[in-house]
Design brief:
eight-stranded mixed sheet, alpha+beta, six-stranded mixed sheet, 755 residues
Length: 755
């Protein structure tokens, strides 16, 4: 361990290769699932990373730091045992593959390899002026757009982008010398004179071009950089955290980790964020105090220039017609005297993010939702192009106010053909639940002279109404031996969970006036959910019914639901959808993503294992009962695109018969149709140290500590048993003969801690 890293540990900053891994299994479920003490440890490390890095730290770069073991002592990733041969080799030219922020690459330069981490990425449209003036149609335009209102055609759109690589992320030993770097900049073949890369990026599809940064990076790691992601030399492997190497498990776990890191960055009081980029508040304050180039004076001048912007060659005041100007922050910064050198390398990323934060602070502090006293309305119109495009419109009073910091893309939409059709927005319809016959009414396990035992799932209607159906044999026996409304004792045993006394034993009423008898007046525990399986038992001649849940072998997570008990996947898919809980069942107030998920789960073709597949073309009508407003259809389509990109929904193919009914699998001689499917992926849940056990009794839980690499102190070496344990760990990652431990590290095997 380097002296510098040791110093960090002495002041309380943990090391990714330390005694305790910074990433835990709970973090694969997202920020909200992480216990406070685990958040605090990760926050402590990430705050140190953000303070140490020269550029603002994107969420994906912060993930890299903790997952790949960034050395705070100055060696960066060069201080970790990562295998550089695992990095994708990129040959930059006029065209390039998609490289998201966070991508670690080896740039082929024709001589010495150039290792770099992409730390910033933005649009570099050729029509953006040298001083930041942007044609209206460029602001918010989709990838591949060819002009005002021309979205372009084709499955593989292109977009010119500027990438900022951190050429020092791997420490001095793996960085080029100043003379080598100067030679590459002068040649301008692989990097330009600023140390940046400007390329035409070819996207595989329009959906891929619209994908958010975090899902895009997850896809990159799982495909192009999969070997790097599953390296056994990372502090703790994603495969270990999720319990396997299945693609769906890895992707869900990776997105959960990225969400955890994003939540940490957004919640840290010592940091400010601009989009997915994090900076220390101390660095921003120092920038405002700085009187040199790109300091506080220049940032104030930038804000004033944006407020009083006017088209080139026109005077700002005295105009008789509305004026709209679009300004790209990145190019605009080059106008300030002395800024050229500060905008080289990663300094450009820092300057752009600070300028955007400064503009956002001015808009929030000095205007009414973007409307200034001067009558100008300033809003962020495009967060990607040119480092951020700000829209200045005068007079701003006539425009409908909104969130000025949510990119609206008004520049692009202003060039689209006017919509003459006035459409009224609809409210979503209340989708009916499938009937009991389709999902099953339960299974009779035993009916003899002594007792009746049956098994059946809990339904949403039971939860909301406080009732539960009785088996017909029990109804018949109660009707013969008791009145039509006898009082019974209901005993609930939620195996492994301590219930409140009033929930565990309840006095209820049996309504047995007809063959469809039921128990009423039940108070269901809050932890019960639709699909939870019950085994019910009644001894003949008694007034007691015992209801018992059944434990699974391990705690699992299905979609958004975590449970350690048996459940019916069909009922869970249908009735545990967005908008459904103990209080009621309604689509009111749901956003587009939730409406899509609710509709697919409620209306899709249902399989025995809980898959739901729906005809994509009828989704808008299913949500709203008839064809909705164009804006509502567009919002649903955008939500579907995002859900497919995040693999929360999956595309498939089916067919439609002559009556218009969809079928899956597709039938021969029937027209094929696109389907969207909900796949309830299950994940193993491991509770962290300091959490509570699944019984809910509040006692410290035993923690399953994942196997991980630990840095050794100088002079120490691993035992032969630890070497063999590491080889076995590597075999689980797909290496038949395993790997050897890197020098200076040992392997901590999976073990139970606490209890």
């Amino acid at each position: 361990m380097s002296a510098a890293v040791g110093e960090y540990e002495r002041v309380g900053v943990p090391d990714p290769y330390g005694d305790r891994a910074l990433l835990t299994s709970d973090m694969t479920r997202g920020y909200e699932a992480v216990p406070v003490q685990e958040r605090d440890r990760l926050r402590c490390y990430l705050e140190a990373v953000v303070a140490a890095r020269p550029a603002p730290v994107h969420t994906t770069v912060a993930f890299n730091a903790v997952y790949f073991g960034y050395d705070l002592g100055g060696d960066g990733y060069g201080g970790s045992p990562l295998c550089l041969d695992d990095f994708p080799v990129i040959s930059f030219g006029e065209r390039a593959p998609v490289l998201p922020v966070g991508a670690m690459v080896c740039v082929a330069t024709g001589s010495d390899p150039l290792y770099a981490e992409i730390v910033h990425r933005e649009g570099a449209h050729p029509d953006v002026g040298a001083l930041g003036d942007v044609p209206a149609w460029v602001s918010g335009a989709p990838a591949g757009a060819e002009g005002p209102g021309k979205a372009g055609e084709g499955a593989g759109p292109r977009r010119r982008e500027l990438l900022v690589p951190d050429l020092n992320a791997f420490g001095s030993a793996l960085s080029l010398s100043p003379s080598q770097l100067h030679r590459l900049r002068t040649r301008g073949r692989w990097i330009n004179e600023d140390g940046h890369v400007v390329v035409d990026v070819c996207y595989p599809s329009p959906e891929a071009a619209r994908r958010d940064d975090l899902p895009a990076y997850a896809d990159y790691l799982l495909t192009t950089a999969r070997k790097q992601l599953l390296s056994p030399f990372v502090p703790v492997s994603l495969a270990t955290l999720v319990g396997g190497t299945h693609y769906d498990d890895l992707r869900a776990g990776l997105l959960g980790l990225l969400d955890t890191v994003r939540g940490i960055l957004n919640s840290a009081s010592a940091m400010r964020t601009w989009g997915n980029y994090a900076m220390t508040r101390a660095s921003l304050a120092a920038c405002w105090r700085d009187t040199g180039p790109l300091g506080g004076d220049d940032l104030r001048s930038l804000a004033a220039a944006v407020e009083h912007a006017a088209p080139s060659g026109k005077r700002r005041y005295g105009l008789t017609s509305p004026v709209t100007v679009y300004t790209a922050v990145g190019p605009r910064l080059r106008e300030f005297p002395g800024a050229t050198e500060l905008l080289r390398g990663v300094g450009y990323a820092a300057a752009v993010c600070r300028a955007n934060v400064a503009l956002a602070d001015v808009v929030q502090g000095d205007s009414d939702r973007g409307l200034f006293e001067s009558g100008c309305r300033i809003t962020l119109d495009d967060a990607f192009e040119g480092g951020g495009v700000w829209r200045s419109h005068h007079p701003g009073h006539a425009e409908e106010p909104g969130d000025p910091l949510t990119p609206a893309g008004r520049g692009w939409t202003s060039t689209l053909p006017a919509q003459t059709e006035v459409e009224a927005a609809l409210d979503p319809v209340e989708l009916p639940l499938s009937d009991d016959v389709f999902l099953g009414t339960g299974e009779l396990l035993r009916n003899d002279a002594r007792e009746t035992v049956w098994r059946t799932p809990l339904r949403l209607a039971h939860l909301i109404g406080g009732w539960f159906p009785l088996h017909p044999y029990v109804v018949e026996e109660l009707r013969l031996s008791h009145s039509t409304r006898p009082g019974l004792r209901l005993e609930i045993d939620h195996v492994g969970v301590a219930l409140d006394e009033k929930e565990a034993v309840q006095q209820v009423t049996a309504e047995v006036g007809d063959e469809h008898g039921r128990l009423t007046g039940i108070t269901w525990p809050n932890t019960f959910f639709p699909g939870l399986m019950f085994e019910l038992r009644r001894c003949h001649g008694t007034t007691v019914i015992r209801l018992t849940t059944m434990r699974l072998k391990e705690q699992i997570r299905v979609g958004d639901r975590e449970t350690g008990h048996c459940y019916d996947p069909r009922v869970l898919t249908r009735e545990d959808a967005p908008g459904s809980d103990h209080r009621g069942d309604s689509a009111a107030g749901l956003g587009p993503r939730q409406l899509v998920m609710r509709t697919v789960r409620r209306c899709g073709l249902l399989t025995v294992d809980g898959h739901a597949l729906m005809d994509r073309s009828i989704l808008p009508s299913a949500v709203y009962g008839r064809r909705p407003a164009r804006s509502q259809s567009a919002a649903l389509e955008a939500a579907v695109t995002d859900l497919l990109a995040e693999h929360i929904l999956e595309p498939d193919r089916g067919s439609r018969d002559t009556w218009g009914q969809p079928h899956f699998p597709a039938r021969d001689r029937e027209p094929a149709i696109p389907l969207i499917g909900y796949h309830p992926v299950t994940h193993r849940v491991i509770h962290p140290w300091g959490g509570t056990d699944v019984s809910g009794e509040g006692l410290p839980a035993a923690q399953l500590v994942s196997g991980h690499l630990r840095r050794l102190r100088p002079g120490c070496s691993p035992s032969e048993g630890q070497r063999e344990a590491f080889r076995e760990h590597c075999r689980g990652l797909g290496k038949a003969d395993g790997w050897e431990l890197p020098d200076g590290y040992t392997f901590v095997t999976e073990h139970i801690r606490g209890g």
